[in-house]
Amino acid sequence: MNQNNSPAVGSKLLLRGIHVSLTDAMQAAIEEKTHRLLRHEPRIDRVRIDVDHDQTRAHGSRYVAKGHIEIGGPDIVASVATEDAYKSVDLLIDKLDRQLRKRATALQSRRHRGSLAELGAEA
Question: What CATH superfamily is the domain 3-122?
């Protein structure tokens, strides 16, 4: 990862392990993956990632990764549960990325819809 980008990611990223301690390797992996979200949407105020080891489940889905993106407008929240902590984080970042792209597309279509309606009315 680029040295110049690390402070921006670190200042906007909050990591928390619930019933599990986050290793340095896991923290680095989460930070690297979260950089993708910040690259797509620079107006993000803060990204909070919680990794929870749920010991109440009998089989499978023992690691739950929860993400919360604070951004202008409604916040984006997602959660993913799998049997592996790294896999949960990977899927969570993918899910948050899809939600950010969907939000950006909706905002862009709203902006262009008004101008297209005006063009149709003038013609």
Answer: Ribosome hibernation promotion factor-like (3.30.160.100)
